[in-house]
Specification:
CATH architecture: 3-Layer(aba) Sandwich
Shape: globular
CATH class: Alpha Beta
Order of helices and strands: HEHEHHHEHEE
Structural class: alpha/beta
Number of helices: 6
Distance between the termini: 17 Å
Radius of gyration: 16 Å
Number of strands: 5
Length: about 180
């Protein structure tokens, strides 16, 4: 999995290393017991979700609200290339009020993902669900449920193939695990 580019909406499959990461996460998720596995529609997320769902004995449900941030004109550009742009510096210091040219604000991402998690939590009640998504989407969810300003989003490390657990209940949420390598 390439990590030197922004967006990664290309339909690239998981690498062998990515498949191994997915198997390790699947093992941990299966131990938790999940009633449903939801996934971003992007290829690598869906492949990861299939591995997790198979191990958990449930089907994958595609969920557009979990898709990666729309990077607009910056899609698939290298971080090295973006580093010289003033707009990039602004975007990374003021995520709550800026957006990639032609792309999506992190506030919009947070809103769509939080709305999904609230619906899913309400629908599934007191059982565990798994949502396979992308680093900035996961960061935005952690920020939302812990009341962390979005401008601090990049202080949260979310690696590929890691596990983050939020316990979302009727009267609040608790972060149980952040960025755990399986």
């Amino acid at each position: 999995m390439a990590s030197d580019r922004l967006g990664q909406r290309a339909a690239e499959p998981l690498t062998g290393h990515g498949e191994e990461q997915a198997r390790r996460v699947a093992h941990r998720v299966a131990k938790l017991g999940v009633a449903a596995v939801f996934s971003s529609p992007l290829t690598r997320a869906m492949e990861t979700a299939r591995i997790v769902a198979e191990r958990a004995g449930v089907a994958v449900i595609t969920e557009p609200a979990l898709r990666e941030v729309d990077a607009g004109e910056w899609e698939n550009r290298s971080f090295k290339e973006l580093a010289g742009l003033e707009e990039w510096k602004w975007y990374n210091s003021f995520r709550s009020g800026s957006r990639p040219p032609g792309g999506e604000m992190i506030l919009e991402v947070q809103s769509r993902a939080a709305a999904f998690l609230e619906r899913a939590t309400h629908t599934h009640g007191d059982v565990n669900i798994c949502a396979v998504s992308h680093a900035d989407v996961i960061r935005a969810m952690v920020c939302h449920y812990l009341a962390i300003p979005l401008d601090l989003l990049l202080r949260l490390r979310i690696d590929t193939g890691s596990l983050t657990i939020l316990r979302i209940e009727k009267y609040g949420a608790e972060l149980e695990l952040l960025n755990a390598a399986s």
